[in-house]
Design goal:
- This protein has 104 residues and is an alpha/beta fold.
- It has a single domain (7-94), classed as Transcription Regulator spoIIAA.
- It has helices spanning 27-41, 60-75, 86-94; strands at 7-13, 16-25, 47-58, 79-84.
- The chain has a four-stranded mixed beta sheet with strand order 1-2-3-4, with helices on one face.
- The longest helix is centred in the middle third of the chain and has 16 residues, at 60-75.
- It is globular and about 30 Å long.
Length: 104
């Protein structure tokens, strides 16, 4: 049985970015996702919504990269929200972080 690779989508409406992903969030997927997040957060006054409801598998390295990307946005005053499935959120919580990618 093969594991689906990560598929990334980015849409923009004004200064609002929606970054979506589905499949397995692995090291390669994290690189692409983080770059998309940083690109969105580079624009002053932007808001970034991560829609990761379609992520079916999550590598542990992905959590650290998402936390770093969240910090990157917050340092620039950019709002970052996350929508993810219960398994993803459980892994995030087990790692000690909230849905806002902040320490619990």
């Amino acid at each position: 049985m093969s594991v689906a690779s990560f598929s990334l989508s980015v849409s923009r409406l004004g200064r609002d970015f929606t970054i979506g992903g589905s499949g397995t969030l692995d090291v390669e997927g994290v690189r692409a996702l983080r770059q998309a997040i940083e690109d969105g957060c580079a624009e002053e006054g932007a808001a970034v919504m991560l829609d990761l409801l379609g992520v079916s598998n999550l590598d542990p390295e992905a959590i650290a990269a998402l936390i770093e990307a969240g910090d990157f946005c917050r340092e620039r005053g950019i709002g970052l929200t996350l929508s993810a499935g219960p398994d993803f959120l459980r892994v995030l919580k087990d790692a000690g972080y909230s849905e806002e990618l902040l320490p619990l």
